[in-house]
Amino acid sequence: MLARYRPAQSAVRPSGAPPSWAERNPRRLPAIFWRYLLLLLGLLAVATYQNHSDVEKTVSNEASALAALYRDVSAYPDPMRSELEAFLRDYTHYVIDEAWPLQRKGIVPAGAVKKVAAFFSHLASFEPETKSQVSLHRATLSEFNTFFEYRRSRLYSVTAGIPPVMWYTVAVGALINVFMIWLFNLRLGTHLLLGGLISFFTGTMICLIALLDHPFRGQVSVSPQAFELIYNQMMQD
Description:
Blueprint: H1 21-24, H2 28-73, H3 80-104, H4 113-124, H5 131-157, H6 164-181, H7 188-213, H8 225-235
């Protein structure tokens, strides 16, 4: 089909000037453009999928750190144990029922800031009396730092995504792609079939990138299932 491509007539060259590369290879121009457009879409698709997978891993790691933290505080003596467990149950309940709906709207939840600060303040006030309690307290503080790092990574991912300038580039490339398809000198039926297939594939790639761009939004968003499992299996009375 590329053999039937008929480029527009170029401007008149000065007498004796050699033809340019574009004039010598007119059939390669559409193929080169499609190659770079598909390369751009492919790189964006891989980047968004990798980011989506990284966010899923971050959520899973945060939930695992929360479970380990809950396990550690369960070894503290009362009344410290009951108070710390209550803090963690309240935090987990907030993440599932309040924070996640906000994340699906692209809003960074801020309600747990005071909850986490209150938990750490209460944990830091504990004074170990035996060597085993010293070791337990040191391990709990280390686990809290790990949990806090994963939590910050999850909150940062709420608003992360492809920069708008990249979306403008994709939109312009898709429009140029449609324009170049109509430069072929083909029968109407062949034109519609070729244009429809290429446009369908390009649109599918763009939709895939858009669905994976924001990990907490849309039909394929990251779910709070990891937190729900921990809450149901470890924290319910």
